[in-house]
Amino acid sequence: MGPVWRAVDEVLDRQVAIKEMRLDDREAEDARVRRERSLREARATARIDHPNVVRIYDVVQEAADRLWIVMDLVDCRSLEQVLGPGRPGRRGRGRADRDRTGPRAAGGARGRRAAP
Q1: Short-list 46, 62, 64, 63, CA closest to 54
Q2: Considering the entire predicted model, what is its pTM?
Q3: Are 55 and 69 in contact (CB under 8 A)?
Q4: How many domains are there within the chain?
Q5: 58-70 confidence digits (pLDDT tens)
Q6: Measured on CA atoms in the order 43, 48, 49, 52, is the torsion positive or negative?
Q7: Ramachandran quadrant class, 35 (left: phi over 0; alpha: psi -120 to 50; beta: rest)
Q8: In a domain, 87, yes or no
Q9: Are the C-beta atoms of 95 and 104 separated by less than 8 Å?
Q10: pLDDT by residue (tens digit) across 77-108?
Q11: What is the CATH number of the domain that holds 40?
Q12: Which member of 7, 17, 33, 44 has the lowest number of beta carbons within 10 Å of its beta carbon?
């Protein structure tokens, strides 16, 4: 994971998002494994053509410990804006909704927990 930046593709004159993948690690092998995993995930995502999946345009590998994934920019509110201050009672309301629509509402098992 890493920060996502808003940028402009100057060649095609469009806004894009650039996700910075930080791969630096004390162990060179761990950084190499994370780099390969990130590239594999970017390749797999780039093959998907679906309206609910962000399109990958390019992967930039300039530094040994960093990788940038250039993708379609989805212009929306950030998670911080959605969950930020000024939304009191949000968690309680979600639990009440879940209780009305979950297994209890359907007469299913009560008081059981699933272990991970």
Answers
A1: 46
A2: 0.62
A3: no
A4: 1
A5: 999 877 778 899 9
A6: negative
A7: alpha
A8: no
A9: no
A10: 877 788 887 665 555 555 555 555 555 555 54
A11: 3.30.200.20
A12: 44
